[in-house]
Specification:
The complex is a heterodimer of chains A (120) and B (405).
Chain A: H1 5-8, E1 13-15, E2 21-24, E3 27-33, E4 36-45, H2 47-54, H3 56-68, E5 77-80, E6 84-86, E7 90-93, H4 104-112
Parallel strand pairs in A: 1-7
Antiparallel strand pairs in A: 1-2, 3-4, 4-5, 6-7
Helix pairs in contact in A: 2-3
Chain B: H1 2-16, H2 21-34, H3 39-63, H4 67-75, H5 77-110, H6 114-131, H7 134-144, H8 150-157, H9 162-167, H10 178-192, H11 195-207, H12 215-243, H13 254-257, H14 262-300, H15 314-332, H16 337-351, H17 353-363, H18 366-369, H19 376-403
Helix pairs in contact in B: 1-7, 1-12, 2-10, 2-12, 2-16, 3-10, 3-11, 3-12, 3-17, 4-5, 4-14, 4-17, 5-6, 5-14, 5-15, 5-16, 6-14, 6-15, 7-14, 8-12, 8-14, 10-16, 10-19, 11-14, 14-15, 16-19, 17-19
The chains are: A alpha+beta (120), B mainly alpha (405).
Chain lengths: 120, 405
């Protein structure tokens, strides 16, 4: 199947089975094949992946930041293309996004910060 | 019936929410020094805003995507990072100015210095965002903001020379203080067309679940709401021209603006000015804070909605919490609100091209907006506006240096 990476995949919002936003497609993983066109095997969500697209210096900072404060490093979430339901204006995947690293920060903040403020 | 009610509410909301610290202060300064001469910049700014509000509302109604979403999706992160960073930076300074506006109104009412009010104001704004929903934040503060109609009443009571008012709608060169004139011209454009306004508007359209059926409401809100809103700014300028110019009062301190209405409406005028300034700036405070949280959440693909409980979208709620409190701190350390307002209006004006020019691509992309894409008229108007924003960007730094104080 032909896929227009920039038009229908890269930078689109990723929705999980519960229609939750789990992030945006920050990068794609290409599989190079001998004697055949490369295929998109997966896509990734994560600050480190995004930083890589913004430039080598930012990418180095992101890696250094993750090493210095591992808790800050969100990790990278990778979805195989076989788990992708649709692409286009948004990308939906066949899974529950909640336990993935992409929502680790969201979950941590909800539990440790936001829920403790009255009225949340 | 419901449609007419929605339409009326939409228009009333945009009138009540139109004025804020920047539009009030720049209009007062312009009228005080140049009389009616700078009215054309309010007209130009209002037309520009009308155009952008209509297009961003149409984008949201047709595609369900906000301007923030569409900018990242269509142009990718390598471009999107520019409007994201400039948008957040400029909006943050404008936000601090708005908190300063509320704090100054409270200072003039109580005699207690504005620095002491900054954190309570920021906290009150946060509380409204935390406990309220989109309708309360948008419509609640805007309905109270209708008190700003007092400026139109006062302007009418002063019986301005309508012939000269009309003539000032066309640009003219200044006969004195050229740099100051052009500095204020650019500031007024920045105060009228703030990117946070159409970012907020398109996010609001998504919050309210707009579809193609709402396109007529969108058009009417943009045209009528912004026109009436522009009349409020014009009224402020006209009053300043008739009250301050003959008395030689130049507004270099916020408190001087408080003298705008008393000569026309007596003590009630003073009270109504404070109420107008306070409410208008408070409304803008909550809207800018939300607009910033929307932009970041949309850009990074987080869940966002002011209609959900704060803990449902933890990163979004944390963003507006940190943003508004930090902006409060900026005011609490005692930065001059008037200087900050002037500076941030200039910066806003300079930041316009990065969001205005990409609108061309978005609104002409058939895959995105289909049959609702721009016609020749919208494109021509957007083209003219883009040229204006580029001229503004190029002239912003020299004007800030030459005409800034």
């Amino acid at each position: 199947m032909e896929l227009r990476i920039v038009h229908d995949l890269l930078d689109k919002v990723v929705l999980d089975d519960g229609r939750r936003n789990i992030g945006r497609v920050d990068g794609v993983v290409l599989e190079l094949r001998r004697d055949a066109a490369p295929v998109v095997s997966a896509f990734e969500i994560g600050g480190r992946v995004l930083a890589r697209r913004l430039g080598p210096r930012l990418a180095r900072w992101a890696v250094a930041l993750g090493r210095r404060w591992p808790a800050l490093g969100n990790g990278v979430t990778r979805f195989a293309m076989r788990d992708v339901r649709t692409t286009g204006i948004t990308v939906s995947v066949k899974c529950d996004g909640r336990p993935t690293p992409a929502l680790a920060w969201e979950n941590w903040l909800r539990e440790h910060v936001i829920s403790r403020i009255p009225g949340a | 019936m419901k449609r007419i009610l929605d339409l009326t509410l939409g228009i009333v909301t945009s009138i009540g929410g139109f004025l804020e610290a920047g539009s009030i202060i720049t209009a007062v300064q312009a009228g005080a020094v140049f009389g009616y001469k700078l009215l054309w910049t309010i007209a130009l700014g209002t037309l520009g805003l009308m155009l952008l509000v209509e297009q961003s509302g149409r984008l949201a109604a047709v595609t369900g995507r906000t301007v923030g979403d569409a900018l990242r999706e269509r142009f990718g992160i390598r471009f999107f990072i520019i409007p994201l960073v400039t948008g957040l930076l400029v909006s943050f300074l404008v936000l601090a100015s708005e908190i300063g506006g509320v704090a100054l109104a409270l200072q003039m009412a109580t005699g207690i210095g504005f620095q002491w009010w900054a954190m309570p104001v920021a906290f009150a704004g946060w509380f409204l965002l935390w406990k309220g929903n989109f309708g309360i934040v948008e419509k609640g503060t805007s309905l109270l903001g209708l008190v700003t109609i007092v400026f139109v009443v006062a302007a009418l009571k002063l019986h301005p020379d309508w012939g000269r008012v009309g003539a000032s709608l066309l640009p003219t060169a200044p006969d004195h203080d050229g740099p100051r004139y052009w500095y204020l011209a650019v500031s007024i454009i920045g105060a009228s067309i703030s990117p946070y306004l159409y970012m907020f508007y398109s996010s609001g359209a998504v919050e309210d679940g707009w579809g193609v059926n709402d396109l007529s409401t969108n058009k009417a809100t943009a045209v009528l709401g912004m026109s009436f809103g522009g009349i409020l700014s014009a009224a402020v300028l006209i009053i300043a021209a008739l009250v301050f110019l003959p008395r030689g009062i130049q507004v270099d301190r916020y408190e001087q603006a408080g003298l705008l209405l008393p000569p026309v409406l007596g003590h009630t005028g003073f009270v109504l000015f404070l109420a107008s300034l306070g409410i208008a700036c408070f409304g803008a405070t909550t809207e800018i804070t939300l607009a910033m949280a929307y932009l970041l959440a949309q850009g990074l693909g987080w869940d966002w909605s002011e209609n959900a409980r704060p803990k449902q979208n933890a990163r979004f709620s944390l963003t507006y919490t940190v943003t508004i409190l930090l902006a409060g701190v900026v005011m609490a350390v005692g930065i001059d609100p008037l200087k900050l307002t002037n500076f941030s209006m200039m910066l806003t004006a300079a930041s316009l091209p990065v969001t205005v020019i990409p609108m061309f691509v978005l609104m002409n992309d058939e895959a995105l907006v289909g049959e609702h894409r721009n016609r020749w008229f919208s494109n021509a108007a957007l083209g003219a506006l883009s040229i204006v924003t580029i001229i503004v960007l190029v002239s912003a730094v020299p004007l800030q240096i030459l005409g800034g104080s």
